[in-house]
């Protein structure tokens, strides 16, 4: 499982919600929020805010506010990358991207102008330090053309590149200052601690205080070239979902990221607003294709029987209002997503007929899942128990095998688990990010689905990789519809992402690009 590039919360609209109350008062330390301070709360998933190393939700939330990127997603539309610091053009063969510096007024938090040299250094540092997000620019050569132009050259066609560059992990840093503080473009780089405490971005905010265990404080970047934020200070605190609910209700916090569907229902209009957006997380059942390891799960008829035995409407109820059916593992807001109208439907008679074809006689099948994990408010233990009860109605017997997340993930990676629940969060909003589920892909290997296992899928994958522009959508839909039809991966639900916003915030933006944009809040 990978982190959802959390700035990619999937819905293609901007919400400007108005609550009829003025800003609340509070202490200047940000403990309760003041007229110029936003207090936001989440259970921290934070290791660093060095943009070229961070690959967790909390780090991305912070870096979205601190760093600008070469490209962006306008109004959260993940299907159309647009200009950021740069404009862009792709070559006809998708092997070369030309970036032209567009925002000539952009300045870092110390007042230095953003230059092409800063962009080149940032890209090369991302690649060279070999942190978690370095793979974003794998196989890409970075070349400065002149003081306004950069070329990104790929050996193979790389149509996903425009969808990758908006990621907060590819934020542009002040190269001069970072170099002066042990920053390099190789594994000898020593600037991480400096960047944690002294951010070097050109976004609307800069870091005032960094504590990975308790809170991070941001203050407005006086040199930011865009509209000045109404809130000059942001305090992001590390607290549990239960505390977040209490603090939103009492006005001690203005933003809460981790409320589940039941907790969200406890927020009435006097307390605030709820922004419920489809997440870019996919929940699915995996089936091991090796007959010796998967047992019944290796049989295509059995897999299709499981697919027909699931009551998907009840899974939507479990995931909460705003969650969606899925016809493939690709989230519904992405290019290449299969239409929800083609999602599997429950048919117990069909399931029992397929089980008969499979020769299944009710034997128990080990079913693995993380016992301590929730995904966007969906408790995976509760999900597993729900699936066990539903499949029992079709005479399919799951033997639940809960384990801590790390243990379960190690088992999945070993390719020895017969069945279980998997999750995937988009690294970038392009269908190529899901090629790992095609036979021979890195995740497909975890269910022993080798590259030669399905010639039809191999052919469709080759066709999709050659498709260009608007043709890519149809080509990837065809590929991933055929993938779902095998039953190796059974899409369950696209959960909802809930952000609670206190009544002291009169206007805010919550969309695909940022789940809550601090700089646009009023």
Q: What is this entry, summarized?
A:
The protein has 522 residues and is an alpha+beta fold.
SSE arrangement:
Elements: E1 37-42, H1 57-66, E2 71-73, E3 81-83, E4 86-90, E5 96-101, H2 116-128, E6 140-146, E7 149-154, H3 161-164, H4 175-180, H5 192-197, E8 205-210, E9 215-220, E10 233-238, H6 241-250, E11 255-256, H7 261-264, E12 272-278, E13 281-287, H8 291-294, H9 300-309, H10 312-319, H11 348-358, E14 364-370, E15 374-375, E16 378-379, H12 380-392, E17 397-403, H13 405-413, E18 419-425, H14 455-466, H15 471-485, E19 489-493, E20 496-502
Parallel strand pairs: 1-10, 1-11, 14-17, 14-18
Antiparallel strand pairs: 2-3, 4-5, 5-7, 6-7, 8-9, 9-10, 11-20, 12-20, 13-18, 13-19, 15-16
Written overview of the protein:
There is one protein chain. By secondary structure, this protein is α+β, with helices and mostly antiparallel strands. It has helices at 57-66, 116-128, 161-164, 175-180, 192-197, 241-250, 261-264, 291-294, 300-309, 312-319, 348-358, 380-392, 405-413, 455-466, 471-485; strands at 37-42, 71-73, 81-83, 86-90, 96-101, 140-146, 149-154, 205-210, 215-220, 233-238, 255-256, 272-278, 281-287, 364-370, 374-375, 378-379, 397-403, 419-425, 489-493, 496-502. The strands form 5 sheets. The protein has a 7-stranded mixed beta sheet, with helices on both faces. A hairpin with a 4-residue loop joins strand 8 and strand 9. The radius of gyration is 23 Å and the shape is globular.
């Amino acid at each position: 499982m990978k982190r959802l590039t959390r700035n990619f919360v999937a819905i293609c609209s901007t919400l400007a919600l108005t609550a009829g109350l003025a800003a609340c008062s509070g202490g200047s330390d940000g403990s309760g929020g003041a007229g110029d301070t936003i207090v936001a709360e989440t259970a921290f998933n934070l290791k660093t805010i060095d943009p070229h190393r961070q690959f967790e939700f909390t780090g991305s939330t912070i870096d979205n506010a601190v760093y600008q990127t070469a490209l962006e997603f306008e109004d959260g539309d993940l299907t159309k990358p647009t200009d950021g610091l740069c404009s862009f053009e792709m070559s006809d063969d998708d092997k070369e991207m030309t970036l032209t510096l567009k925002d000539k007024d952009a300045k870092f938090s110390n007042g230095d102008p953003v230059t092409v040299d800063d962009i080149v250094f940032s890209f090369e540092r991302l690649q060279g330090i070999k942190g978690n997000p370095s793979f974003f620019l794998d196989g890409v050569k970075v070349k400065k053309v002149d003081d306004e132009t950069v070329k990104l050259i790929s050996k193979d066609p790389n149509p996903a590149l425009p969808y990758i560059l908006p990621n907060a992990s590819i934020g542009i840093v002040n190269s001069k200052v970072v170099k002066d503080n042990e920053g390099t473009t190789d594994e000898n780089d020593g600037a991480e601690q400096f960047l944690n405490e002294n951010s070097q971005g050109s976004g609307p905010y800069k870091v005032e205080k960094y504590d990975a265990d308790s809170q991070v404080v941001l203050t407005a970047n006086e040199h930011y070239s865009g509209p000045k934020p109404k809130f000059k200070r942001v305090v992001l605190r590390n607290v549990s979902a239960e505390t977040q609910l209490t603090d939103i209700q009492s006005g001690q916090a203005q933003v809460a990221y981790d409320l589940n569907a039941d907790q969200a229902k406890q927020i009435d209009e006097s307390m605030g607003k709820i922004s419920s957006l489809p997440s870019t997380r996919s929940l699915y059942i995996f089936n091991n294709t090796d007959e010796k390891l998967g047992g019944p799960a290796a049989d295509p008829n059995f897999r299709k029987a499981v697919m027909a035995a699931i009551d998907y409407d009840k899974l939507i109820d479990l995931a909460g209002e705003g969650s969606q059916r899925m016809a493939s593992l690709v989230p519904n807001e992405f290019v290449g997503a299969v239409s929800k109208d083609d999602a599997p439907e429950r048919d117990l008679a069909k399931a029992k007929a397929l089980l008969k074809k499979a020769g299944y006689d009710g034997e128990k099948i080990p079913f693995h899942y993380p016992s301590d994990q929730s995904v966007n408010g969906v408790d995976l233990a509760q999900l597993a128990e729900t699936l066990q009860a539903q499949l029992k109605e079709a005479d399919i017997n799951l033997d639940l095998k809960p384990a801590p997340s790390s243990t379960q993930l190690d088992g999945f990676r070993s390719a020895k688990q017969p069945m279980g629940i998997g999750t995937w969060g988009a690294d970038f909003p392009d269908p190529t990010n899901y090629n790992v589920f095609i036979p021979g892909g890195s995740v497909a290997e975890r269910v022993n689905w080798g590259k030669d296992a399905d010639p039809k899928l191999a052919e469709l994958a080759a066709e999709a990789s050659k498709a260009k522009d608007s043709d890519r959508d149809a080509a990837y839909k065809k590929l991933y519809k055929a993938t779902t039809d095998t039953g190796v991966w059974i899409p369950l639900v696209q959960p909802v992402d809930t952000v609670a916003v206190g009544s002291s915030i009169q206007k805010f933006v919550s969309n695909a690009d940022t789940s809550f944009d601090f700089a646009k809040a009023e």
